Amino acid sequence: MILAIEGVDRHLHPDLFEQMFRMRAAVFADRLGWDVTVVDGREVDQFDAEDPLYLLCVDEVAEELKGAVRLLPTTGPNMLRDVFSVLVPDGSVESPLIWESSRFAVNPKLTVGPTGHEANHTVNSTMVELLCGLVEAARLAGVEHIVSVFDARMARIFRTVDCPYEVIGHPTRIGRTMTYAGLFEISDSMRRRLGNKAGLHEPVLSRHRFRCKTALQA
Q1: Please, are residues 99 and 139 in contact by the beta-carbon 8 Å criterion?
Q2: Where exactly are the structural domains of the chain?
């Protein structure tokens, strides 16, 4: 299940957001070694103060966060324009019809399993569920494209889960890896191809109240 929660409402979901910020620290600082700021085990940056829309993939049975992604309008502060402008030297993407996705992450606990095959399947299915939720949320908002900054590892994953994109600007080596800015089409066709990859043919975005330990709501 995917919960869409606006930044202004995150105080209503303290447990989920605590899990998310700690997951981001585990993924981006500990596992990937990115130059991010971690305080008290939580990775939070300046864009979390811009009241973005968060999509949280939640295991309803275990009441545990499986993954998350953050969405911001490109008409305001965003990572491509304000942090990774080197990728688009001719000018950043800016349109009310384009959102930026960032901090796409899957809970590292999901990668632990009896076999590598099982772990990879769980990670990939969570990623596809998040991507399906992203397309559904963007469609509801009238958004036509998503732009995102990602590294070579994510580029391989996007190809694996049949999520095509158009590279914009100039891929650049940042730190230890090649980094890309990609434009993703938001369409019924994109949702179908992602759904076909993981057998997710019904909507994944929750529109109902969801309650667990912290009285969460979608």
Answers
A1: no
A2: 2-198
Residue 182 pairs with which residues in a beta bridge?
148, 167
CA distances from 62 to 35, 59, 203 (A): 32, 6, 21
CATH of domain 2-198: 3.40.630.30
Give residues with Cβ within 8 angstroms of 42, minimum separation 6: 18, 21, 22, 24, 25
Task: Determine if the pTM surpasses 0.85.
Answer: yes
Instruction: Decide: 136 and 194 in contact? Cβ < 8 Å.
Output: no
Nearest-angstrom CA–CA distance, 10 and 93: 28
In this predicted model, what pLDDT tens digit does every residue of 46-69 receive, in sequence order? Answer: 999 999 999 999 988 877 899 999
pLDDT at 118 over 50: no
pLDDT band at 174 (very low <50, low <70, confident <90, very high): confident
